[in-house]
Design brief:
This protein has eight helices and seven strands; from the N terminus they run βαβαααβαβαββαβα. By secondary structure, the chain is of the alpha/beta class. It is globular, with a radius of gyration of 18 Å.
Length: 215
């Protein structure tokens, strides 16, 4: 039976990186809700117009609408042998919808939590800086520029920190994630489908562990 692989992880845990590697190396599509929302901004369909209207008003896109987007995306031909979900489900109603979706398409659900200690997540997120000219990414803790706070490729360009990478904002994001995700982790753990990988190591080591769990 083909698999739906659900990657769960806090902001900065690296689940998006692992999802992309699974897509590249196993040929199964990465389905990211963030990518879908961005795609919806460029489309002219009834569903896209509905999403655009809600996002323009600054409101939260409701579960039902997010799940419709996932359904529409997973109905495409490239998902017939399975796919990786990155950023979905986030709530228990979305979990229930995914259970129905898996049943309809005759797929099993496997859940992998990319687990990273909170202090490491803080370093990863608050340490991020980017060049406003070329967009090159740095981290003052793990990948600093050669010249303090200036881009290696554009030496006159001072690196910037995104407002949502400031310490107070990051703390709030992580607390929100913990609060919202705890019920999902409990649900999948109770049903015996939750597996964990240590996300604090090297990307390739984490990927090998993810692959072992899937196989």
């Amino acid at each position: 039976m083909d698999k739906i692989i659900v990657l769960i992880g806090a902001p900065g845990a690296g689940k998006g990186t692992q999802a992309r590697l699974l897509q590249e190396r196993r040929g199964i599509p990465q389905i990211s809700t963030g990518d879908m929302f961005r795609e919806m901004q460029t489309l002219d369909t009834p569903l896209a117009r509905e999403v655009q209207e809600i996002m323009a008003s600054g409101k939260y896109v409701p579960d039902e609408l997010t799940s419709r987007m996932v359904k529409e995306r997973t109905d495409r031909d490239d998902t017939k042998n399975g796919y990786v979900l990155d950023g979905y489900p986030r709530t228990l109603p979305q979990v229930e919808f995914l259970e129905e979706l898996a049943k309809e398409s005759n797929k099993t659900i496997e859940v992998i939590e990319v687990d990273v200690p909170k202090d490491e997540l803080m370093r990863r997120l608050t340490g991020r800086r980017n060049c406003p000219v070329c967009g090159e990414l740095y981290n003052i803790y793990s990948r600093p520029p050669a010249n303090d706070n200036f881009c290696d490729l554009h030496p006159q360009s001072e690196l910037k920190q995104r407002s949502d990478d400031k310490e107070e904002s990051v703390r709030t994001r992580l607390e929100t994630y913990e609060r919202e995700t705890e019920p999902l982790i409990d649900y999948y753990a109770t049903s015996g489908r939750l597996k964990k990988v240590d996300g604090s190591g090297e990307v390739e080591d984490i990927y090998r562990e993810v692959e072992n769990l899937i196989n």
